[in-house]
Design brief:
- The protein is mainly alpha-helical.
- 79% of the residues lie in helices and 2% in strands.
- It contains seven helices and two strands, in the order ααββααααα.
- β1 and β2 form a beta hairpin.
- It is rod-shaped, with a radius of gyration of 30 Å.
């Protein structure tokens, strides 16, 4: 084997060229990864903002449904005592300064219709509870991924706080909340 200066220089040049091309490809991969992570972070931040809006909508819907459920239950009880307090019950069942009970029940205040409406409002409450559970799981997944930006952490904290105030362990706990507890959910 013959060793020459030209051979050594040629080998060194090839090795340097390979190292440079390898470093360029590594740098390009890092840039692609960084761009992808920024894109994902932006999407997650947008989703967190949307979750806040959804949470507020669900809480409003849940509050309205619970007010209606309470009113329907009172009307059913009132049927047994001669319908004395019917107008008072209708007037007291308000959500955002609107009488929601009369709108939900209509003009038919029979025992059969009231029981049907009680089932319907129970289904609405269950749907809202399922939506809250899905949001809770989604927020937990976002937190576990640790991808959300630092600016959005306060939003995540407020979502967690709102979800922690609701006891999703039992549907009966949600559907039998008092008015004060429900109003606290909206804060």
């Amino acid at each position: 084997m013959k060793v020459s200066i030209e051979g050594i220089l040629g080998t060194a040049t090839r090795m340097e060229s390979q190292i440079q091309s390898h470093e360029k490809s590594e740098g390009k991969k890092k840039q692609e990864i960084k761009a992808d992570s920024l894109d994902i972070r932006a999407k997650i931040n947008t989703r967190v903002v949307n979750i806040q809006k959804e949470l507020k909508d669900i809480q409003s819907s849940l509050t309205k449904s619970q007010i209606i459920q309470n009113g329907v239950s009172q009307l059913i009880e009132n049927l047994g005592v001669g319908r004395k307090n019917r107008e008072t019950i209708f007037n007291n069942a308000q959500f955002e300064n609107q009488s929601v009970l009369r709108e939900f029940i209509g003009n038919n205040i029979s025992n059969e219709n009231l029981n049907l409406k009680l089932q319907q409002v129970g289904n609405l409450i269950r749907e809202d509870v399922h939506k809250l559970r899905r949001l809770e799981i989604e927020v937990e997944n976002i937190l576990a991924s640790n991808i959300a930006s630092k600016e959005i952490n306060s939003a995540i904290s407020s979502i967690e706080s709102a979800l922690s105030r609701t006891d999703l362990a039992s549907l009966s706990n949600i559907s039998n909340l008092s008015g004060n507890i429900v109003m606290n959910l909206l804060k």
